[in-house]
Amino acid sequence: MVGFSQTDGWVAFAKTKFDAKYNEKAGEYFLFPTFSADLKALVGKQIELEGYYLPIDVDGNAYIILSKFPYSQCFFCGGAGPESIAEVYFKTKTPAFEADEFIRIKGKLKLNDSDLEHGNFIVEEAVLVK
Asked: What percent of the chain shows pLDDT beyond 70?
């Protein structure tokens, strides 16, 4: 393991630097990540995250959004940074959660630095730990 506990993905995500860049197609600025070498080394490996389920409407319920912070303080509503959320794709049917339910998941890390339709931190093949 490099630099941090594999069980605390939020610490790893926090080492990401973000720069605002103008997107011609969208006609606005977006934050683009520069991932640390330590974080890149975890791509495809199992990580764990615990956090709050955000009731964000996702097409087809393909994934959920997990946040380090409750809804009132999250990236979308409360001003936290993009390093505080992750897209989570479960191995099996997505479980039903309540808004702000605190859960722990584990799965394989994927990073996204170019697709504006998705988050920067993605956990695939996830399972619910608690």
From this structure: 88
Do you know the residue count of the chain?
130
**Residue 101 identity:** E
Residue 83 phi/psi, 5-degree rounding, is -75, -5
Per the CB < 8 A criterion, the answer to whether 71 and 54 are in contact is yes
Amino acid in position 84: S
pLDDT (tens digit, 9 = 90+) per residue, 22-34? Answer: 988 888 898 899 9
Name the residue among 7, 4, 15, 23 with its Cα closest to residue 81. Answer: 15
pTM: 0.86
Task: Tell me how far CA of residue 103 lies from CA of 2, 24, 33, 125, 129, in angstroms.
Answer: 25, 38, 26, 16, 8
The rounded distance, in Å, linking the Cα atoms of 48 and 107 is 7
Which CATH architecture best describes the domain 9-128? Beta Barrel (2.40)
Phi and psi, residue 59, nearest 5°: -55, 125
